Amino acid sequence: MGQNRRRPGMRLLVGDIGGTNARFRLLEGEGQQWCLRHQSSWPSTRFESLEALIEELTACFSSLERVTIDEAWLAVAGPVHGSRVTFTNLPWRADAHALAARFGWGRAFLVNDLQALAHAVPALGPRDLAPVQQGQCGNDTHLVIAVGTGLGVATYRVSDQGADVFASEGGHTDFIPTTPTHFRLLEYLREHYSHASQERVLSGAGLADLYRFVCREHVCAPDPAITEATDPAATVNQQAASGHAPMALDTMELFAELLGRFAGNAALFSAAFGGVYLAGGVATRLHPYLTGTRFRQTFQDKGRMKPIMNQVPVWTITSTDVGLNGITALGTRYAVTGTPIAPCPVDSSTASSPEEASWIR
């Protein structure tokens, strides 16, 4: 990734923009470190465009900071072609050059969100990881799967120069059934979608659809408390944890089974025997079910490759800031070791109001 380009006074905006939430940091080069001017999180779906979101974000900055951002590095939830992205789960399009021109930035860069996230994984410690399957690293290739609003997949290898990351759109590959139940699920998906992809099952929206399918399998009506909830995926999880909602519990276990099969296949495709990392809000909530037998059985169920799959370590990433840390690593050029960031001294002269000065930190 090259060397750190920090220079005194340089201001850098980094952001991790997903289909549900967008997280940002404003950094400033100071001495031998970057200091943190601002950090905040925003609901993506509240805004009609990325530009509208950034307008509201930058309104929180002092006027000086708005006009002196040297670079912006934005991790975006969609395939990036050149300087442009069409978001997969938001009705947004964006162009890096247009963003830089509109907001007066020196330069702007758009990076696939999974590609950015993978740059943070090598620096994760034991407190950031929850084990799913113990094993031994078989090589230097690692797989990252993010299960959240969508389904993202990336691989990386660590070298002396940093992390070499390879993004993909593996979440949009075909959903492949392997059991009679899976075949019925495929037919259910085809009733609702023109393309039955893995993301249509292994995502927040997919979890809600999977719940409706499980209810149909058991010939019972879905619970309106789940289907009409603002966040059906979170509600399914809560109901399953209560011990009083068998359909919700069956849904979580079927989800874990399907995720295990997908993760195992993805690991084989990429020969990622160094380890598999599961990220994203849905994966974090699902962790208690991933440690059961259904995930491991389908992850390992790969015929003659089973002895190898038995030894591939699998973790759930518990850190909620891993995507933001990844794009920070890219923007600051600390690709593996992490970025030392300390709060900036509060300087009320750069704030447009006393209230604003209180949260420049």
TrEMBL record:
GO cellular component: cytosol
TM segment ranges: none
Keyword Acyltransferase (UniProt): no
Organism: Vreelandella halophila
The family this protein is said to belong to: Belongs to the bacterial glucokinase family.
Assigned EC number: 2.7.1.2
Protein name in the entry: Glucokinase
GO molecular function: ATP binding; D-glucose binding; glucokinase activity
NCBIfam families assigned: glk
Pfam families according to UniProt: Glucokinase
Keyword annotations: Kinase, Transferase
GO biological process: glycolytic process
